[in-house]
Amino acid sequence: MPNSGSTSGLNFEELSADKVPVPAVVGAGEQVREVPAAGGAAPGDPDHGQGAQPKIDMHHHFCAPEWREWAAQHGLIDPAQLPRWAHLGAEDAVRFMDAAGIGTAVLKPMLPARYRSSAQLREAVNITLRSMMNVAQEHPARFSFYVPLFLDDLEASSWAVRRGLGQLGAVGVNVTANYGGVYLGDPAYDQIFAELNDFSAVVDTHPHHLPGGRPGAMTVPGIPNFMCDFLLDTTRAAVNMISRRTLDRFPDISVILPHAGGFLPYIAHRLQALGRFCDPPVDPAAVRHHLARFYYDTAGPMAPAATLLAHVPADRILFGTDWPAAPADTITDLALPALEADPAFTPEQLRGIYRENALRLIPQLATV
């Protein structure tokens, strides 16, 4: 091909070990620092010790150790250049989940590389899928997983949809906001979206490098791309899907926008007022309709929710951590307390965000 390797959840070069501090999780096999879960829960108690239902983490990254070994053998990656969190395994994840009161995590697979052929890409996806299945089997009720899609290889993506959703029990697919500058919503992806619509699939999205950027390079010197560019990438994909009326044309898919939708909630009124200048023009009613139909995860930490809730029903918000790319103490000491203290949420809405909304979206998670 070669393939861009854009479907990764996060790009390893973007979050290299020398750019992102990892104070709570420092290496494969090492212990997660024992931090109390929000609300004073003791580590190792996913129920918080207070009768609360355990959370479902819908934004939980995973780099398969089998994929790392295979990719290194084929000269696709240098394991020494991966960030330390990319070497963490399922046991590290379980310790973090117990500390944060998380019962189940849906794995977002990361396998970024420039694959030399479609066959090599399929092998990488198959290795990753088998690894995630093994993790789920070895830790009953703790893990489920998404299928990684590379939409710049439509044939391999179609195979991965059939393999992962049709045969292996994945609960959705994971895609990135753009592939070589072609954003979600583009007609080039209609074939795959039609197949996903046939499966009534959950389509989990994640930002990537902005088009034209050099992988591993900061767009603005000194400002990591995940600080601003990732949010813009998600916003561009969402606006393009609104403009192309993706959710109208494929009404049986469910699209999750990460990081509370990026900047989308903050530009909603701007898009309604000025969308007529887009090509094709954006109908204000389509903006309101799509905003209410997207799902949004809380990974971030996200901003206070008032602006989001002005456009989005609370039952469309899903709990997500971004672990292990986000350090454990960032989640337990900052993100979770901020979420629980957010005055825009009622206790009932928080219960939905932590668990019930995910179960309505993916009922299989109740039987993982």
Q: What CATH architecture do you see? A: Alpha-Beta Barrel
CATH names the topology as: TIM Barrel
Strand order of the largest sheet: 1-2-3-4-7-8-9-10
CATH class: Alpha Beta
SSE class = alpha/beta
Task: Give the total of domains.
Answer: 1
Taken in chain order, the helices and strands follow as EHHEHEHEEEHEHHEHHEHEHH
Q: In percent terms, what proportion of residues is strand?
A: 5-15%
Unreliable stretches, pLDDT < 50, 5 or more residues?
Answer: 12-50
First CA to last CA: what distance? 37 Å
- What does the main sheet amount to? 8 strands, parallel
How would you sum up this structure, described in words?
The longest helix is centred in the middle third of the chain and has 21 residues. By secondary structure, the chain is of the alpha/beta class. Helix 1 packs antiparallel against helix 3, helix 3 packs parallel to helix 4 and helix 8 packs antiparallel against helix 9. Helix content is 37%, strand content 12%. Helix 4 links the parallel strand 3 and strand 4. The protein has an eight-stranded parallel β-sheet with strand order 1-2-3-4-7-8-9-10. It contains twelve helices and ten strands. It has one domain: TIM Barrel (Alpha-Beta Barrel). The chain is globular. About 11% of the residues have low confidence. The relative contact order is 0.15.
